[in-house]
Amino acid sequence: MRPVILMNSKKIDLKELLKEKKKIALGGHVRPDGDCIGSVMGLYLYLKQEYPHIQTDVYLEKIPETFRLIKGTDEVRSEVNNNETPYDLFICLDCADPMRLGFSSSVFENAKETVCIDHHISNESFADLNYIVPDASSTSELVVTLLDEEKISKESAEALYMGIAHDTGVFRYSCTSPETMENAAKLMRKGINGNAIIEQTFYEKTYVQNQILGRALLESMLIMDRQCVVSVIRKSSMEFFHAEPSDLEGVVSILRQTKGVEVAIFLHELEPQKYKVSLRSKQYIDVSVIAKHFGGGGHIRAAGVTMTGSAHDVINNITEQIARQFEKLEEKSVIPQ
Ligand code: AMP
Ligand code: MN
Ligand code: MN
Fold first, then answer.
1. Which of 5, 94, 122 should be mutated for ligand 1, with most atoms under 8 A from CB?
2. Of the ligands numbered here, which is closest to the C-alpha atom of 132?
3. Pocket of ligand 1 (CB under 6 A)
4. In the prediction, which pLDDT does 8 show?
5. For 115, phi and psi rounded to 5 degrees?
6. Statement: the pTM of the whole predicted model exceeds 0.85
7. Interaxial angle between packed helices 139-146 and 178-188, expressed in degrees from 0 to 180 and rounded to the nearest 10
8. 328 contacts: CB under 8 Å, gap ≥ 6
9. Domains of the chain (ranges, CATH numbers)
10. GO molecular function terms here (predicted)?
11. What is the rounded average pLDDT for all residues in the chain?
């Protein structure tokens, strides 16, 4: 059974929220991806322009090189200054739980008021005020709905458009709704170069990224009667190719494209006996439930978790959960036997 979650929470009135605030912080999840960076930076650029009297700081881990074309990314703080006085407000974006804030969780905890804007189904509304819409394609799309369309600058639109494009796999995944297209259209009308943003931040790969992708594909295996594809990238391979964790972005989505498979499982060895696991499904399996079962989270078709043990143990534990779901779906005749 899916745990009880808040499906649609009340929209946030930004103007009301920012009344009498002098100093606010924005933050997102560890290893920030396109949507995390897009939503945080899009909101940041909007707030700086519309509320210049408020000190607004952004806390995010180091921004990967590909995302540096987004304005303001050079102003991001990747360390906490212990002398900083508490913020009046911390707005947390695209982050399913407070631990996922990583280094900025102490800034969040010390803030006088907290807000969370997110679309992860696993989010348990951990802030004082929560705007969680699991049906939304991306946090960036949610941010668009909170802003005054007329006041969105071209630079803010670029960030938000990038976020939507990334979490929808360039308007391809099932999370893409008619509203997603309408919100993206609003951003396009700001005169952004959408093609260049998509090409440079989503499709373009460095030589190293292609090499490590090649390794992951070459060593992938079909398991569970060819219903799942699994691949493991070891620390030694990362060192051999001089690859960064962010170079693995997108590998699991390509594994999922394998014809006939329902689930793609990708393991990235963080340290001996510790793996970052990425899960993707096509049609039936709810991977968010599986990730949450092991302490992670995410969405129905895309989720992640960090697990300990050997790669063999991790894969066994995950496939056991997938098998259970398959059995239930067959019992209910959702999937023909
Ligand atoms: P990834 O496989 O890392 O691309 O993650 C897929 C989705 O699940 C993203 O939306 C992540 O934000 C989310 N996610 C990944 N890892 C975790 C985790 N440990 N806890 C909660 N959500 C996660
Ligand atoms: Mn994200
Ligand atoms: Mn997201």
1. 122
2. 3
3. 29, 96, 100, 120, 122, 252, 278, 296-299, 302-306
4. 55
5. -135, 145
6. yes
7. 60
8. none
9. 12-201 (3.90.1640.10), 205-332 (3.10.310.30)
10. hydrolase activity; nucleic acid binding
11. 96
